[in-house]
Each structure stands twice: as structure tokens, then as C-alpha cells.
Design brief:
- The chain is mainly α.
- It is built from three helices and no strands.
- Helix 1 runs antiparallel to helix 3 and helix 2 runs antiparallel to helix 3.
- It is elongated, with a radius of gyration of 16 Å.
- About 5% of the residues are buried.
Length: about 70
């Protein structure tokens, strides 16, 4: 497959990490509202989760550029 179909595929693949990052930070906001003293630990964990989720989007971009 070449052309616009692969670009469409990458666009659809970027939706997953976008939703994942939104869910991660929604949980951090909710947890910080419930227990403000745990905010630092929640943010640290969220940054790690965000980095791993972004790695999936970057991996999808690499596969798009290779194909």
C-alpha cells in the first residue's frame, strides 16, 4: 500500500495514544483531587506512562516512514 492510505493509517494509529494520554492525566487529576498529598507521586507515575504511550505514537510514525 502506498499513498494516502498509509497516511490515513498513521492518523488512525495516533488516536490510541491520544486517548491513552487523556486517560492517564484524567486519573492523575482525579487522584490529586482525592488525595492532594499524593500529587507528586501521581505525577511521576503519569510522566512515565505518558512517555511510554508517546513511544507507541512515535513507533507508528517510524513504521509509516519506513513503509
Amino acid at each position: 500500500m502506498t499513498g494516502n492510505i498509509t497516511l490515513l493509517g498513521y492518523g488512525l494509529a495516533a488516536i490510541g495514544p491520544g486517548i491513552g494520554i487523556g486517560l492517564i492525566w484524567a486519573a492523575v487529576i482525579s487522584g490529586s483531587a482525592r488525595q492532594p498529598e499524593a500529587k507528586g507521586m501521581l505525577q511521576t507515575t503519569a510522566f512515565i506512562g505518558t512517555a511510554l504511550t508517546e513511544a507507541l505514537a512515535i513507533l507508528g510514525l517510524v513504521f509509516y516512514l519506513i513503509a
